[in-house]
Amino acid sequence: MRAGVQHLTLLSITGTTYGGEEKNQRNLSEQNVSSSREKEKSRSKGVQHSRSIQSHSLRPLDEKVKEMKDKVIRAKAYLSFAPPGSNSHFVKEIKLRIKELERAMGDVTKDFRLSRRAIQKMKAMDTTLLKASRIYPDGSAMVNTLRAMTYSAEEQLRSQRDQTSFLIQLAARTTPKGLHCLSMRLTTEYFALQPEERELPNKYKLQDPHLYHFAVFSDNVLACSVVVNSTVSTARELEKIVFHIVTDSLNLPAMSMWFLMNPPGKATIQIQSIDNFEWLSTKYNEDQQKKKGLDPRYVSALNHLRFYLPDIFPFLNKIVFLDHDVVVKKDLTRLLHINIKGKVNGAVETCVEGEAPFRRMDMFINFTDPSVAKRFDANTCTWAFGMNIFDLQEWRKRNLTARYHKYLELGSKRPLLKAGSLPIGWMTFYKHTQALDRTWHLVGLGYDSGVTQAEIEQAAVVHYDGVMKPWLDIGIQKYKPYWKKHVNYEHPYMQQCNLHE
């Protein structure tokens, strides 16, 4: 891969990275592994740069919050000294103080989020704890011992969580042996073909703006196969569907061979290599990328190619973008007829507080920077990448790719956002996004075991965003059948590469 393309991707998150390595937005491991890596003496300047952003919104518990939790522990220890069944005035008082302080704290982890009420309740607790120390003068030593035991247990738990997260992240970055075998066999078969045998049919449909066009950027053959198979299985007008798959030069032969052997029925498919986009390296500031000591997961050119959709498809007016870790459950051709009211991007919002995919802009974007605070509203509703309808005509009129470059350049000069395509997407399509009905796109199947079957059944697209992909052993088992349903495990190459259900 050319140097300009090799260093293309600056950011990656929540959603998807490639080469067996993942994006999210909010992964359970991204935060924990980051905190673990802070302890490494040999980390790169690029990681240190990212750390300064994360400290804005993901730093450890603040001192005031720690103090409150400590007082609750002490109060419960003193409460344990009371005789069983005691209903004295002091027991009632200390129970009340515990309840009040816990309720006032809630799930807060930062001092600046504490309410005035929480501070008042802590002062009331201080008075009660002073009274307890007089009632139980010999209890202080035991309270201190219990407190030390609690902190020790919490530290051990934190250490084990960090280790677990690191191992999960490591597994997510590793390409399974079976998938590697499949790619090698397909590549060998591809180069055994004559040049004319390598051509996919229906080229005349590729630039027809009246058809239904879908774009997938990936280097994972099996994942692309599931996206295509699931889309085809639900579509009504197959002859009008056109898939555009963009991969890298290494995986182009395998990807092409798979769809030559397994054509998507009456639908049309195109396979392209990102290396053929010669204009890409000139549009992207290569020098900025060479300065970044980024995590290997985030250096795939495919991850940020989505910001160049109008350039890749200059003859198209609309396109549906799909991540390679989705399964389509309902006819998506209807999506291309939805009125997105003059906006560029149609997407499902992720701003419902209390739900698993909840995200705020200030979780990933540094609003302490004056240039960010001036341009954006932190309370703006966020949305998901992975299943988006883009109006390419409006995109071109508003020159949003230039805006993407502007924020990318700003982010290279100072810590504006966390590594990932999701936050820069929010910035690029700020005030250019129309909310879709939430049943169009369900996220969380790659990190949240609490997604219900009812939600899955209602969804048009289910998204395995996060590190626990359905093709990995670490994938959440109860969600794998939705993905496996579209895998042909009887295929000879699947059998030979030991890829089984």
UniProtKB/TrEMBL annotation:
The keyword Transmembrane applies. Its EC number is 2.4.1.-. CDD domains: GT8_like_1 (cd06429). Keywords: Cell wall biogenesis/degradation, Glycoprotein, Glycosyltransferase, Golgi apparatus, Membrane, Signal-anchor, Transferase, Transmembrane, Transmembrane helix. Coiled coil: none annotated. GO terms for cellular component: Golgi membrane. It is a single-pass type II membrane protein. Pathway: Glycan metabolism; pectin biosynthesis. SUPFAM superfamilies: Nucleotide-diphospho-sugar transferases. This is Hexosyltransferase. It comes from Anisodus tanguticus.
